[in-house]
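[step 3/7] fold_predict: job queued, chain A
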Amino acid sequence: MFKRLDHVSIGVFDIEAAQKLFCDQLGGELLKDAGSSNDEGFRWITFLLGGKKIELVSPTGEGGVGRYLDKNGEGFHHLSFSVSDLEAAKEFCDTNHLRVLGYNPEPSSFRHFYMHPKDTFGALIQVFEETDNTMDLAE
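[step 4/7] structure written:
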């Protein structure tokens, strides 16, 4: 079902300070997968460090990332796995009583959902449909 672990995400309040640590001081190499979501109130950057992709997420307004950081503080935010068929992955979760959060099946956007951390031993898991575009961003 899961094709690959795409990245580990870290929630931070100050993305510039975190970028300075992870990239300037520890040698992370910035990737082109970066941006912001006004609808969800956060921005992100990604980088390679030790041969693995890491994402930093930071709140820009009201949204899930800000609520998470207010409740839990900075640190681990989520794991992100790719699948070839988002609907099949959702059906698998439904069949196995794994609650799905934020299901976004729209073909014109980043197709993804999250698995509820209460069902996954405390880890928020993002599941996204892999496309040529997401593979291009993974490099």
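[step 5/7] annotate
The radius of gyration is 15 Å.
The CA atoms of residues 11 and 72 lie 10 Å apart.
exit 0
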